Amino acid sequence: MDVVIRVIVIGHEGRDHLKILRRIAKGKAILTSTNHTIPLFREFVYEDIVFGIFPKIGARVSEMVGRWAKNSVGDVIEMVMQMLEVCAVLSGLFTI
């Protein structure tokens, strides 16, 4: 399986980001049909650096809607709707 390994935390910088990822990209939250985040498979810690290991799933959104792509307007609207659903999931998980 191809994966992406990304630095999430260095020292104290990025701790909030890691906290959010643990909430939305692991466990039961990832199974929600409106949660379109990429699952966080594992965390790898080396000294004060935390790496996240994610599945490699595709290209950037900008590459999906460029001139070469043969996507219909419906395809592009579906991509935008999925991004908006993520915003809705996030606002539901992190209400103040």
Sheet-strand content, in percent, reads: 15-25%
Number of domains: 1
Shape: globular
Total helices: the number is 3
Poorly predicted runs are none
Describe the biggest sheet?
Answer: 3 strands, antiparallel
The succession of helices and strands, N to C, reads EHEEHH
Mean pLDDT: 81
Q: Helix/strand/pairing class, anyone?
A: alpha+beta
Write down the Rg: 15 Å
Oligomer: single chain
| Intertermini distance | 38 Å
Give me the count of strands.
3
Main sheet: which strands, in order across? 1-3-2
Determine the fraction of residues in helical runs and give it as a percent range. 25-40%
Question: Summed up, what is this model?
Answer:
With 96 residues, the protein is an alpha+beta fold.
Map the helices and strands.
Layout (H helix, E strand, L loop, with lengths): L2 E8 L4 H10 L17 E5 L2 E7 L5 H4 L8 H21 L3
Antiparallel strand pairs: 1-3, 2-3
Question: What would the keywords be for this entry?
Answer:
single chain; 96 residues; alpha+beta; 3-stranded antiparallel beta sheet; 3 helices; 3 strands; globular
